[in-house]
Write a structure and sequence with these properties.
mainly beta; 4-stranded antiparallel beta sheet; 6% helix; globular
């Protein structure tokens, strides 16, 4: 039996904690329109077919969220009225999912302090992985096969999900963003790249169950919008080394937050994105009150198989996040989300059969 252990926590991974749902937060595009907020477009693209969002009503998602790792060095784009289409208000209110949720703001708490950050993008991240399998509240994501566009994509377009040429997203300025219900109140202004973040580390920024309200002034065709999420109890690191064995279900346990709201969720993320291997991950979202989640043997085997290489298979990044979240339309089919979270990294050992063969 071959055992490989990863407890790798890089600086980039830690930064990822504060931008978690920024990887989860991208919009919707179709064959005729490469990006919802594409500056050359005059129409909104159709809503994506997947539903992987929820609000503090406690409803379970039909699909799990994704986090595909977004770059932070986006170019600032000045918004004009031609940049963003105004939706037909006679249409039913769209469902917010990973294809059309372009705005994402997060408040995070940890044993090291608290802070906030966010951005509003012009288009979905083009390399969203496809959901290949689903079991319970968990899904397995991977490009299979990788995107293949019929014709070569002309720069700056790239071949992305749905086998379509898609733009790399820019960020747009949505004006001053204020978060109330925290102590102190947070006010963020965009930097030159139209990203938002706090520069101070705040201890005890909010109380579990407190109502946190995000208000954006808006700019251009993205008008002012407000979203609310509830404070959660900080997540305790289980410290245990979890063991994931090929061919067997994998159960992870945690202590539910005693003072967290009933709507709080727990997200589990395991990926094998290492050494230029095929990017793939398993992600689960279940009620925090459940205290555990079991990943089926089918999903375990899919993740291990996707990560197999000459050095064996191991989980590169593993973390768990307690969160509450609201996502809603802010302009036609364009959605934004506001998330309050507490994240910890965990160690996962993979055990293979027949020496990994």
């Amino acid at each position: 039996m071959n055992t490989n252990v990863s407890r790798k926590i890089s600086c980039s991974a830690l930064l990822y904690g504060l931008s978690l749902t920024l990887a989860l937060t991208v919009g919707c595009a179709d064959e005729n329109n490469n990006g919802i907020l594409d500056k050359d477009s005059e129409e909104l693209s159709e809503d994506g077919s997947q539903t992987d969002t929820y609000s503090d009503t406690g409803a379970q998602p039909d699909q799990v969220n994704t986090d595909s790792g977004q770059p932070d060095d986006m170019t600032h784009v000045d918004v004009t009225e031609s940049d963003i289409s105004v939706a037909d208000t006679s249409q039913p209110e769209p469902t917010c999912d990973r294809y059309n949720t372009l705005g994402s703001f997060v408040v995070q708490t940890s044993p090291f302090g608290s802070g906030a950050q966010g951005s509003f993008r012009t288009a979905p991240w083009p390399f969203l992985l496809d959901q290949q399998l689903q079991s319970g509240g968990c899904g397995f994501y991977m490009f299979d096969p990788p995107p293949t566009c019929e014709t070569a994509c002309e720069s700056p377009l790239v071949c992305g999900f749905g086998d379509q040429c898609r733009p790399m997203p820019d960020n747009v300025d949505v004006g001053k963003v204020t978060i109330s219900g925290t102590n102190p109140e947070i006010v963020m202004l965009p930097n030159e790249y139209a990203t938002y973040y706090t520069t101070e580390n705040y201890p005890a920024l909010f109380e579990p169950g407190a109502e946190l309200t995000l208000s954006a002034e808006g700019q251009g065709n993205i008008g002012e919008f407000t979203m609310t999420a509830l404070g959660i109890e900080p997540l305790e690191n289980p410290l245990d080394l979890f063991v994931m064995t090929q061919g067997q279900p994998f159960t992870m346990k945690w202590t539910p937050g005693k003072n967290s709201p009933a709507s709080a969720k727990m997200m589990i993320h395991l990926d094998i994105d290492h050494h230029a291997a095929q990017a793939a991950y398993v992600e689960c979202i279940v009620p925090d009150s459940a205290g555990e989640v079991t990943i089926s043997a089918e999903l375990v085997d899919a993740l291990i198989a996707a990560g197999h290489s000459g050095i064996g298979t191991y989980v590169e990044n593993a973390y768990m996040t307690r969160l509450t979240r609201e996502a809603k339309p802010v302009n036609g089919e364009i959605c934004a989300e506001f998330q309050v979270e507490s994240m910890v990294f965990i160690g996962v050992e993979t055990q293979l059969k027949d020496n990994g063969k």
